[in-house]
């Protein structure tokens, strides 16, 4: 997985009834766009994310 600052990450719910989370990538800490990513989610909290198979990255439109 590769991402850049400003891209959006979606974390899909892994169980029935769990909500999808969306956030903006604030910082890429791995080499050449690789994880981990510092992400600010819609509710305002920030977390270091090591994305798994339940995640998607959408490139930021310029």
What would your notes on this structure say?
InterPro entries: DUF1918 (IPR015035). It comes from Amycolatopsis mongoliensis. Residues 1-57 form the DUF1918 domain. This protein is an all-beta fold and 62 residues long. 0% of the residues lie in helices and 40% in strands. The chain has a five-stranded antiparallel sheet with strand order 4-3-2-1-5, with no helix packed on it.
In short:
The chain has no helices and five strands. It is mostly beta strands and 62 residues long.
Key traits:
single chain, 62 residues, mainly beta, five-stranded antiparallel sheet, 0% helix, globular
Distance between the termini: 20 Å
Q: Main beta sheet, described?
A: 5 strands, antiparallel
Specify the number of helices.
Answer: 0
* Biggest β-sheet: strands ordered side by side in the sheet: 4-3-2-1-5
Domain DUF1918: 1-57
Biased composition (Basic and acidic residues): 21-30
Region (Disordered): 1-33
Protein name: DUF1918 domain-containing protein
Which helices and strands, and how do they pair?
Layout: E1 8-11, E2 21-28, E3 37-41, E4 46-49, E5 55-58
Antiparallel strand pairs: 1-2, 1-5, 2-3, 3-4
């Amino acid at each position: 997985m590769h991402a850049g600052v400003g891209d959006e990450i979606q974390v899909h719910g892994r169980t029935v009834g769990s909500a999808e989370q969306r956030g903006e990538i604030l910082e890429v800490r791995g080499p050449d766009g690789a994880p981990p990513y510092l992400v600010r989610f819609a509710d305002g909290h920030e977390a270091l994310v090591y994305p798994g198979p339940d995640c998607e990255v959408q490139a930021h439109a310029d």
